[in-house]
Amino acid sequence: MAKQNFTYKTKQIDGRHAMICMNSNPAESKYAYAAPSDGPCEEWVFCGNDTAKVLCSSCVQRSLSKSPNFEPIEKTYED
Ligand SMILES: [Zn+2]
Questions:
Q1: Taking the domains of the chain in order of start, what are their residue ranges?
Q2: Ligand 1 centre and the CA of 1: distance in Å?
Q3: 12 near 47, Cβ under 8 Å?
C-alpha cells in the first residue's frame, strides 16, 4: 500500500466506483504541471475501490505533451 495522507473524493456513477482526478488538488498531485491551465481538474474517473489516486485521461494527455519523462502512475481507469 502506498503511503498517503490526502484522500481524494469518490462517488458512485451508474453503480460504479469513481474518483476525482488527482489534479482536483494540484497541491497533492505530483502531476500538477498537467492540471488544466484555468483551474483544478474536475474530471471523474472510474476506478477500483482500493485506488488511492487517479489521473484522468485529459491530464494524462497534457502531462505527455509537457513532460518527456512522464512515468505511468499506478492508476486504473476505463473509458
Ligand atoms: Zn484531470
A1: 10-66
A2: 23
A3: no
pTM for this structure?
A: 0.76
> From the CA of 14, how far away is ligand 1's center (Å)?
20
Q: What digits encode the pLDDT tens for the residues 35-69? A: 999 999 999 999 999 999 999 999 999 988 876 66
Q: In whole angstroms, how far apart are CA 20 and each of 26, 41, 53, 68, 69?
A: 12, 8, 8, 25, 24
- Cα–Cα distance between 1 and 37 in angstroms, integer? 31
Q: How far is the CA of 49 from the centre of ligand 1 (A)?
A: 19
What is the three-class DSSP state of 10?
strand
